[in-house]
# Entry
Amino acid sequence: MDKPTDNDTFENDGNKQSGSEGRSATPVAADEENQRRGNVVPNQPWYKQKKSIKLWLAIIVAAAAVCGVLIDLAGNLGFFERFQDSGQISEEDVRNAERHVEGLKEKHDEAEKLVKSIREMYVEIGEDVSKKAKEIAREIENNSEAQPLEKAIARALSLQLDNEPARAIQEWEKIAKNAEGDDNAVAALAWFSVGYLLRQDSEASIRANDKAIHLEANFPEAYNNRGIAKTALGRLDDALADYDEAIRLKPKFAKAYNNRGMVKKKLRRLDDALADYDEAIRLKPKFAKAYYNRGLAMVDSELFDDALTDFDAAIQINPNYFEAYINRGSTNTVLGRYESAIADYDEAIRLKRDFVDVYLSRAGAKYRLGRKAEARKDLKTALKLARKANNTKLATTVEQALRDSASDEDL
# Structure
């Protein structure tokens, strides 16, 4: 496996207000029958209540953490202050959040400004913040002062955090159906959340994002996620149109540039793909996946040294980037740098010990250095893993490689 693998990495936006990175809305008053049936529409606008504002913003923070991101502007102020103490949130972020909350108390139009800020400002976080977000979702769900809509959203988020996507989808669909017509922004976000949860079923994900976009046309994250689903189905031209629209609506949308670059690479428009990756990195300098994907495009363009530079950058940003180690190793192999390739494969195996192809690649590099006994050992490990995975085709390939290596030793 001397040639680097073509496993580009898409960037899927998670539940914006449910999650890849939030949005609030303005529910209208519900009638007595809605309240009697326990429907999710609140009995008064959330933005008129200071406590409710804080709860809603906390929900958004929890929602973002579901998909591994933290909004760095606005949120439950106490929550942000706790993370400020740990150095993860700046004092300026807290001041900005306070200013937004004060504005919301006085003017409903500020809600839309908050929405825009939340949807544009977020950073990646770790597991510790996700755990804290889970606690916040639980607090909201059990808080007697929270509005029915807030509790419903917190309940849906809790199910996502508990890795119960089927039940979470049911909750989001219930929210969407109750909100449609009264507050299409909430309904759009709920359908967007459904689309994200259904991302392994591309057709279903497209249908959910279609509904989100129908309810709110200016929804760049929904266009981005729909583009990913269309790409998975091979509808590349349609996917490009969605990424184009996402970028038109949100010109600084680094993830959409990264995703559009991958589609252009699939279409062999390598110069255009490289331009999109360049822009993604310019907008988000620590975007490991964009460096990695640009490295793959560099390989396809036979710019191997430039590819190594990009794989280096991806690994520096994310030292546990398994695919980057594999492809840096493959690129080093192409360049005849076998010792460096073996070091990369060693690291990849440390991160994922049961990936057959890495053992095959490392065996090839060792064989070229004359380390034939070590190469055969890697081939035997690969054969064992292939059989364990019931991959008959791969096992046959490895068996042939072992026979060839034995014959070579006899010469």
The longest strand covers residues 69-70.
